[in-house]
Amino acid sequence: MSAMKLSVSGAAALVIAHCAGMLDLVALPVWVGALVERFGFSPQQAGMMATLFLLGAVGASTFAAPRFHRMNQKLVASLGFGLAALFFLIASFETSLIALSGLHLLAGISVGTALSMVHGSMGRSANPHRLFAAAGMALGLFGIVLLAAIPQFLILKGGPALFQTFALVMLIAGLSTVLLFRNPPPRVEEAHKGFSRATWFTIFGISVMTFNQSMVFSFVEVIGKARGFEAGHVLAVLIALGFVNFIVPAPLAAFLQRRVSATFIAQIGPAIQAVLAVIVTSATIFPVWAPAAAVFVAVQIFTHTFVFGLLARLDPSGRASAATPAMLMVGAALGPIVGGALGQNLGFAALGVAAVFVSGVSILFFTKAKTECQPLLASLAA
Fold it and tell me: Are 107 and 53 in contact (CB under 8 A)?
């Protein structure tokens, strides 16, 4: 069957759910920062809890994505976001490491399952690249609101406000899927085929790139304060980051969709990310540090928009798109705890050195994917 044609309300439901499901991409600095400052956990413990959330999402997405075409996507997404809201609400009443760790894991499982249904449906749309770009633009706006609001909520209400905010976000996503989401038409002709080598290399490349993203970005707020920058200035950078994410990467990716090769963007994205990581983790002068921190996430959003569109073309069944949470969060899951361990034991400059090496691995995978893509896409077009 042909690609799914979305109504405005259907597209809105997917975009809202994408923002909620990708909460970690914009909230990790204040998330980890609040666990350290408001709950008294060490950077490594805070990173571990964020990692448990992401590992839960990875496991759930890994299970759900291959079964995407056999599921009631609307029902699964609605239940997933609803349960995530419940687990985050319960977390707002807890302070122990064990309880919060378990709730992070359960919330991650719920979010990963729901988000697989959302991304799989996006991959089945008529223009996955453009829809994912719109979702990225919305995520940037969401990040502005979230990064500006959460620190104020924490000042007024204390640590529990973090999880109460997350619960509200998940509740809104759950309601939007109940009211507006509709299932894509069944398409099983490709669903019994295994992923191509090009698909796997692309998946590995974006996973490794996301590891770099989360390893550094999780500690942007902590690094800024450790460098002696004023807390208000660091917060201003995080807010600016949200504006950059809203204004630049997604609209630019939509504009360049048919003007620049997706495989080319995938190769240069990790290299730019590595340069910015070195600056963010090493710079001691605020005018140098601030611009690099403000655009750091935008590189990931821009690159991943092209990668998402490429994967939707490589696997028309929607299964590869449905695996987006797994391929993103398997890297992101390891990033916070590795970043915390490196920063705590070797200093935050070690994160920049690690980012350079990891970037090389990501570029290698994307280069291998490029060599496999051309004949495969030609055969699919035929």
Answer: yes
